[in-house]
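hey so u asked for the seq, here:
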Amino acid sequence: MEETRCIYKNDREYPANMRNYSSMPEQLYVKGKLPVAGQPAVAIVGARMCSPYGRIQAFRFGKVLSRHGIQIISGMALGIDSEGHKGALEGRTPTFAVLGCGCDVVYPARNRSLYDRILRSGGGIISEYAPGTPPMKFCFPARNRIISALADAVLVIEAKENSGSLITAGFALEMGKAVFALPGPVTENLSIGCHKLIYDGAGIAYSPEVVLQELGISSEEKESEETKEKNRDSGKKNKIGLARDLNLVYSCLDLRPKSLDDIIRKTGLAPETVSRCAVELTLLGWIEETGRHYYVKVK
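ran it, structure tokens below
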């Protein structure tokens, strides 16, 4: 069981990249480790009530960046934050969560397993609030300044017009950090915040390689390793069976794109079940999203 320790601003362990800003707390409470100084870090933030598209992209960016040795910083909230952390865990570089409550308080409670995985993988849980502090509304916007300070760049994946993620991006801009936003359909409320950031000059995160380039990291050095993993995964596909719901969704797809509504009608499953299965099958590499909520089998 990881113990909580208090690190003061004049301690050597206090993150160097936080010392530059007057708004940083005088002390941090930490379980596990702090981000490694000098090693690139990217914050992945976004909507709690995200779409399957946003969930997939947050996981994808987190995994690819983590594979290239980039530390992922986020807030362990439901939705985009959680998926960014999960992708980072798959990429095998430690990830770090900054909480809006005491670092010994698991919030949201359903993220207990994610909280434990972050600590087991060599990452850390960070907070400016004393142990036992419950989550309070005003704590979350405040913690966003710490997320921005710990990161070299901030990536926003799905954000409504007044999203808290835009507060994180705002802090990053004030600190002179790079900000990227994921583009989405112009008809979706979840795209408005990202499109406003892009309009105001944020980088367009059309692929993880864009963020890698900003950090001066080549994506080519990991290609052979990723190819090997894909080959191993493709070999496993012939040996691993699918759960019933996953198999129903997979079986009704072919090489022509089908919408979630089509899949719901064909399978008779609940909409939330179909959405979940679509996300899982996409992450497994069995299907692919060709457009907003349209899926095909992967050849």
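Residues 233-240 have pLDDT under 50 and may be disordered. The longest strand covers residues 27-32.
lmk if thats what u needed
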